Amino acid sequence: MSESMAPPVRAFAPVQWVRNNLFNTWYNILLTLVVGYLLVTSLWPLLNWAFFDANFAGESPSDCTSAGACWLFINQRMNFFMYGFYPDELQWRVDIMFALLAVAFVPQFIERFPGRRWFGIFGMTGLPIIGYFLIPGGWFGLEEVQSSKWGGLMLTLILAYIGILGSLPLGVVLALGRRSEMPIIRGFCVIFIEVWRAVPLITVLFMASVMLPLFLPEGMNFEKLMRALIGLTLWQSAYMAEVIRGGLQAIPRGQYEAGSALGLGYWRKMRLIILPQALTLVIPGIVNTFISLFMDTTLVLIIGLFDILGTVQSTVTDPAWQNVAIEGYVFVAFCFWVFCFGMSRYSQNLERKLDTGHKT
Amino acid sequence: MTEQMQTQQDRSDGDAVGSAKAEKTIIRVEDMHKWYGQFHVLKNLNLNVAQGERIVICGPSGSGKSTFIRCINRLEEHQQGKIIVDDVELTNDIRQIDSVRREVGMVFQHFNLFPHMTVLENCCVAPIWVRKTPRKEAEATAMEYLERVKIPEQANKFPGQLSGGQQQRVAIARALCMKPKIMLFDEPTSALDPEMIKEVLDVMIELAGSGMTMICVTHEMGFAKTVADRVIFMDAGEIVESAPPHEFFDNPREARTQKFLQQILHH
Ligand SMILES: Nc1ncnc2c1ncn2[C@@H]1O[C@H](COP(=O)(O)OP(=O)(O)OP(=O)(O)O)[C@@H](O)[C@H]1O
Ligand SMILES: [Mg+2]
User: Fold this and answer.
1) What is the pLDDT of residue B23?
2) Tens of pLDDT along A193-202?
3) How many independent structural domains does chain A possess?
4) In what order do the strands lie in the sheet with B54-58?
């Protein structure tokens, strides 16, 4: 019998790689040179603008003397971009929430972090509960802060977080309902999904802020933010339901039958057998929906809520600061990119972790 | 001759099943019909299965064998007649269906293991959630059965990492972990390569020796000859013939049976 051997180790040699991939034929050499030239000529001015010629320090618009970006504008207005009109002396409450958010989700990116699962569970249960009491205040001797004063990144995160947290379970229920054998339940879910999916989010938000109060009985008026949140979550859950239904449909009938044959009832079968597989299958679609939800939160601007884009937009027109629009929007883009890229990376981690080598 | 008499006659062939137990009829199918839309798949089926009896069902493709055994644990619904399993009649009552399914294990042609769970979890999920067995105990039982099907060393792998024969043995262990009174097999070896068929059949033969009530749809005639108390031949949704194996193979009474046997034995 022959000895079993370890698989050969593949060394990574950068020089070798470059030679094999970039300079292997004359046309590849040409292509590499052209692309390299374009990169250098376009990247250089960009770096100059963003870093080398940029102004970082200073207090007022007059300190932006050199030709590059005026980042001190972002610095100066950072408070507004983060908290909106949330009173300065109470911002520690929001800071606690930011910190808890980091505590809950940063471990999710570290493979070997002990008990990271519990941090995630905290992020989905404890965190929103704490936020519910801490941010608006009005309990336990905390001073109340009207939701009309919330704004900036904090508001964007609240909208996205509640939207995500609410739309996933709602989407699951709607998707299951749409595949139910009971005609009333199925009919309700089909109508719900098709109605919400056919309406643009802008319309939903308008309706929530302008029309809903007309229909609600006197005295039963929620705050504008609450109405926007409900509209956003319901609208998103219709999309989520369709993504999840795609996953449910991809599960072979044999899985349902094996579950039934073992005596598992409908809910146990769904929870233990079908949903774990269906959700794993559609992680890319789910995260895609999350990301677009995250971006769509910027639409709340039109009903007078100031999310991060809204706060930036209202400051770049400040006559005291000249020509800072680009800096402002680059900053917004960067903030969105950080969060969306984070979600995307996390979903890829998750897919890898949940892959059990089953391909049918 | 009624089915009841038929069963007793089969018993008297001297097969070595505990004779006291053999009196109890555990599955009773009476005048059962099933339709798929307009298509009459199962026509007037009658069958009594005694506890501990081993039955092999064979017949040409599309004759309704799978549909029939899937009616026994209500994966398919019948429209007329009665099916009584372990004294519980299968009706639309979900509780009755669940209580029957707890006592009836099933092994499928394509295994249908849960790919997102390890082998051990596959075996434990139903005992834990349906029978409310404590996890420790369920795992111990699962290991016992995995040993019986001779793959304890695979317990922590995922189904996708096993060969077909190993997967089917896990599927058998998974069904056995519920400690069912009856086992249904729907062509358990027909998706397997020849060299894996034997390892699965060996497990089934061992199980038959332990006194389990078994109904197997299979074309493994060797298995039918060594293990079955009774062989049932179905064609076009009907039970055409039902006889002990030596009679069935040596002197089939019906012309359709003879034709089928010729085809299956001469290819
Ligand atoms: N869900 C269904 N809807 C309609 N017709 C069906 C359905 N399932 C099976 N049939 C039909 O019922 C008949 C019996 O099918 P069944 O699967 O029971 O046959 P079988 O004896 O198990 O055949 P095989 O040996 O190929 O597995 C076939 O003609 C088949 O086409
Ligand atoms: Mg079949």
Assistant:
1) 67
2) 999 999 999 9
3) 2
4) B104-107, B182-186, B213-217, B54-58, B230-235, B238-243
Is B93 touching A (CB cutoff 8 A)?
A: no
Ligand 1 atom nearest to B36, measured from its CA: 4
Range of the domain at A224: 72-86+145-253+279-354
CB distance B106–A261 less than 8 Å? Answer: yes
Q: Verify that A29 and A149 share a domain, yes or no.
A: no
Q: Are residues A218 and A177 in the same domain?
A: yes
Of B102, B110, B159, the CB nearest to A254: B110
CA distance B49 to B235: 20
Tell me if chain A has a CB within 8 Å of the CB of B72: no
Q: How many CB atoms lie within 10 A of CB B199?
A: 19
Query: Has this prediction a pTM greater than 0.80?
Result: yes
In a domain, A234, yes or no: yes
A105 within a domain of the structure (yes/no): no
The answer to whether A85 and A151 have CB atoms below 8 angstroms apart is yes
User: What are the structure tokens assigned to B46, written together?
Assistant: 């009658």
Asked whether residue A349 falls in the same domain as residue A207, the answer is yes
DSSP state of A221: P
Report pLDDT digits (tens) over A304-343. 888 888 888 888 887 777 777 888 888 899 999 999 998 8
In a domain, A236, yes or no: yes
Domain check: are A185 and A240 in the same one?
A: yes
Residue B72: its chain A contacts at CB < 8 A? Answer: none
CB-closest option in A254, A354, A356 to B108: A254
Q: Do A294 and A340 lie in a common domain?
A: yes
Whether A35 and A167 map to the same domain: the answer is no
Pick from A251, A257, A262 the residue to mutate for testing the B interface (most B CBs within 10 Å): A262
CA of B216 from ligand 1 middle (Å) equals 16
Identify which of B249, B13, B121, B47 has the alpha carbon closest to the alpha carbon of residue A272: B121
Atom number in ligand 1 closest to CA B76:
1
Contact A262 B101 (CB under 8 A): yes
Distance CA B181, CA B132 (A): 18
Answer yes or no: do A79 and A25 share one domain. no
The ipTM assigned to this model is: 0.88
Amino acid at position A44, single letter? W
- What average pLDDT is seen over chain B? 88
Mean per-residue pLDDT over chain A, rounded: 85
Asked whether residue A213 falls in the same domain as residue A159, the answer is yes
**Ligand whose nearest atom lies closest to the CA of B65:** 1
Structure confidence by residue, pLDDT tens digits, A160-193: 999 999 999 999 999 999 999 899 999 999 999 9
Chain A residues with CB-CB distance to B110 below 8 A: 254
CATH number of the domain that residue A151 is part of: 1.10.3720.10
Distance CA A129, CA A218 (A): 28
Per DSSP, helices labelled H in A216-262 are 224-250, 253-261
Q: What is the CA(A169)–ligand 2 centre distance, in A?
A: 38
Q: Is A272 on the interface with B (CB under 8 A)?
A: yes
Please give the residue of chain B at the shortest CA–CA distance from A353.
B116
Quote the pLDDT of residue B112. Answer: 94
Among A173, A169, A356, which Cα is nearest to A281's?
Answer: A356
Q: Is the residue at A261 inside a domain?
A: no
